[in-house]
Design a protein that fits this description.
This protein is of the alpha/beta class. The chain has helices at 14-24, 54-59, 73-84, 97-100, 105-111, 136-142, 162-185, 195-202, 204-213, 248-257, 263-266, 273-278, 280-291, 296-306, 316-320, 323-327, 367-373, 378-387, and strands spanning 5-9, 28-33, 63-67, 88-91, 116-121, 189-194, 230-233, 241-244, 310-312, 331-334, 341-344. Helix 1 crosses helix 7 (162-185) and helix 7 (162-185) crosses helix 8 (195-202). The protein is elongated and about 85 Å long.
């Protein structure tokens, strides 16, 4: 994406996740932040070397930071000049804020029909929740995601910010689609991505279950509401292993090759997935009785040899030390205001070029250079800085 310029009036997770992926692919991303602290995700915590927020370090590498006070006329004028040179403008401010500042999609595209404007929000620009504030946990609740996650007694949110990530993925793919269309027609686009819509799409299976059975799927903790066995199972050395059987052939492989119970292949209470779901407690008991007699490594080996899908139940330590990341050479280092940071390559892997892994910027690190590109001289930049318009 070299040659594509993105101006991002962004904060938190959803929009920064979208624009970081564009930056990973080579786009120039100019991140516009408030002079008084910048993107508030910078200070969600200070866990990265005691000085940088984990969310910010994750989401903002390879970007240029320009600090502008958009409450001031000259700050808005600088942003207008930046957008005039951009291919894509992304914003996820509070509902209606960008429009009030003069950066609504219709106004921007009237000045430049080739511009692609991506507006991100919680619930979209129309409808009864248009002005409702939205954060990840709130949207997970509103869109029903927490209703399918947790124990039968207690709904819980997903541990990663899935509503933000979902919206960021659709904004990223929307930007790519709009750039492809512009390449063939010359016309830009106004694209809207709502967090609620993104999570509602991801709730498709639960939605269809509710529509066509009259009941939402039950929360099944780590298990699956319509597949069995599909859960965590104990081992002799105390480490649980996750087993996921997708079909009756997989059940036959598990029963014969791992459990040592070929009789369960034809037993009518176990033979089909429908029967196994109906008799889930019996199925889980039969699986656990066998797995609990084996150590973790032995169980994983036997499952792999039998062709039964499985996984180790890892935590953050397990992920960081995972042999897939090291064995596939996925680790890199990126710079930051607090020193070199470990980071993994993004999932989109080209055979002939590696993703850009540039530094995480300090607040306003590129303000002077970007203003000079816009034609402002050193005295003007110094005055704007002294007045607090830029930082």
């Amino acid at each position: 994406m070299a040659g594509i310029t993105v101006v991002a009036l962004e904060q938190a997770v959803a929009a920064p996740f979208a624009t970081r992926q564009l930056a990973d692919l080579g786009a120039r991303v100019v991140k516009v932040e408030r002079p008084d602290g910048g993107d508030f995700a910078r200070a969600y915590d200070s866990a990265v070397r005691g000085g940088l927020g984990t969310h910010f370090a994750w989401l903002n590498r390879s970007k240029e930071s320009v600090a502008l006070d958009l409450k001031r006329d000259e700050g808005r004028a600088v942003l207008r000049d930046l957008v005039a040179r951009a291919d894509v403008f992304v914003q996820n401010l509070a509902p209606g804020a960008a429009l009030r500042l003069g950066f609504g999609a219709a106004e921007l595209r009237a000045r430049d029909p080739r511009l692609i404007v991506i507006d991100m929000s919680g619930y979209g620009s129309r409808g009864p929740y248009r002005d409702k504030r939205a954060y990840d946990m709130l949207v997970q609740a509103e869109a029903g995601l927490v209703s399918v996650t947790g124990t039968p007694e207690t709904p819980v949110k997903a541990g990663s910010p899935l509503a933000d990530i979902a919206a960021g993925m659709y904004a990223f793919s929307g930007a790519l689609a709009a750039l492809v269309r512009r390449g063939t027609t010359g016309e830009g686009a106004a694209v809207e991505v709502a967090m609620f819509d993104a999570v509602a799409e991801w709730m498709g299976q639960a939605m269809y279950t509710t529509i066509y059975t009259g009941s939402p799927p039950p929360r099944a903790t780590l298990g699956h509401p319509v597949i069995a066995p599909y859960d965590r199972y104990p081992t002799a050395d105390g480490a649980d292993v996750v087993i996921g059987v997708q079909n009756d052939r997989g059940w036959a492989a598990l029963a014969t090759g791992v459990l040592g119970r070929p009789d369960l292949v034809t037993d009518p209470e176990y033979a089909t997935n429908v029967a196994r779901v109906r008799n889930r407690e019996k199925v889980d008991a039969a699986v656990s009785a066998a797995t609990s007699r084996m150590g973790r490594d032995e169980l994983l080996r036997r499952l792999d040899e039998a062709g039964v899908p499985n996984a180790s139940l890892n935590d953050g330590h397990g992920l960081v030390a995972h042999p897939v990341l090291s064995g596939r050479d996925r680790w890199r280092e990126v710079g930051s205001p607090v020193g070199a940071l470990r980071a993994i390559l993004p999932p989109i892997t080209f055979a002939d070029v590696e993703a850009r892994m540039g530094p995480v910027p300090a607040l306003g690190a590129h303000t002077d250079a970007v203003l000079a590109e816009l034609g402002l001289d050193a005295d003007t930049i110094a005055r704007l800085r002294a007045e607090g318009t830029v930082a």
